[in-house]
Amino acid sequence: MGNIYGYARVSTREQNTDRQVLSLRKAKVPNKCILIDRVSGKDFQRPAYQRLLKKLKKGSLLYIHSLDRLGRNYQEIIREWRRITKEKGADIVVLDMPLLDTRKGKDLIGTFLSDLVLQILSFVAENERTSIRQRQAEGIAAAKERGVRFGRPQRKIPQEFYRQCEKWRQGKVTLAQAAEKCGMPASTFYYKARHIRN
């Protein structure tokens, strides 16, 4: 038998992989063989996943906690699943879905059932990703309607700004001098001065 690997993924650096890693360890995946990505599942251009593909070979066994950790794009999940199982000759076990264990049911009916479950779950994973994006867009729109502002809060313009702005326009002080008197970077002073003029 080839090597045993585990793959975990979260969408952002702030999210935690502990739950996934714990389930991979319970499946007896060695710590050094657990590869983790902290990026979106929208595609498979992920550093740890690409390293994993290079390691997988005939007889290897890949554990993942759940199918949506592999990816969120229906067509790409199916393609990657086939690449791993058919081209690489490795097996995949989805820990939270015992039906998705390519070591079992290698006959025609077993393969059919596994493929059917895979297709359904891949569709659900992509559908969830689409729903998340839609809920996020709706939440942002609702927040904007309530007057919530996004981005960095704007700093108040100091009282000295208008006087220094006029001096700068008249050539009495340099941009750097005017900005320093206002306690702001020259680029900010210049941007605000142009904005006020427009």
Strand order of the largest sheet: 2-1-3-4
The CATH C-level name of the largest domain is Alpha Beta
Unreliable stretches (pLDDT < 50, length at least 5) are none
Distance between the termini: 71 Å
Would you identify the CATH architecture of the largest domain? 3-Layer(aba) Sandwich
Task: Report the CATH topology name of the largest domain.
Answer: Rossmann fold
Shape: elongated
Q: How confident overall, as mean pLDDT?
A: 85
Strand composition percent: 5-15%
Return the structural class: alpha/beta
Number of helices: 8
Total count of domains? 2
Task: Give the proportion of residues in helices.
Answer: 40-55%
- H and E string: EHEHEHHEHHHH
CATH superfamily placement of the largest domain: Resolvase, N-terminal catalytic domain
- Rg value: 27 Å
What is the strand tally?
A: 4
Main beta sheet: strand number and arrangement?
Answer: 4 strands, parallel
List the helices and strands and how they pair.
Layout: E1 4-10, H1 18-26, E2 34-38, H2 47-55, E3 61-64, H3 67-70, H4 74-87, E4 91-94, H5 108-145, H6 160-170, H7 175-182, H8 186-197
Parallel strand pairs: 1-2, 1-3, 3-4
Helix pairs in contact: 4-5, 6-7, 7-8
Structure description:
The protein has two domains: 4-141, 3-Layer(aba) Sandwich (Rossmann fold); 160-197. It has 198 residues and is of the alpha/beta class. The chain is built from eight helices and four strands; from the N terminus they run E-H-E-H-E-H-H-E-H-H-H-H. Helix 6 (160-170) packs antiparallel against helix 7 and helix 7 crosses helix 8. It has a four-stranded parallel beta sheet, with helices on both faces. The model has no long low-confidence stretch (mean pLDDT 85).
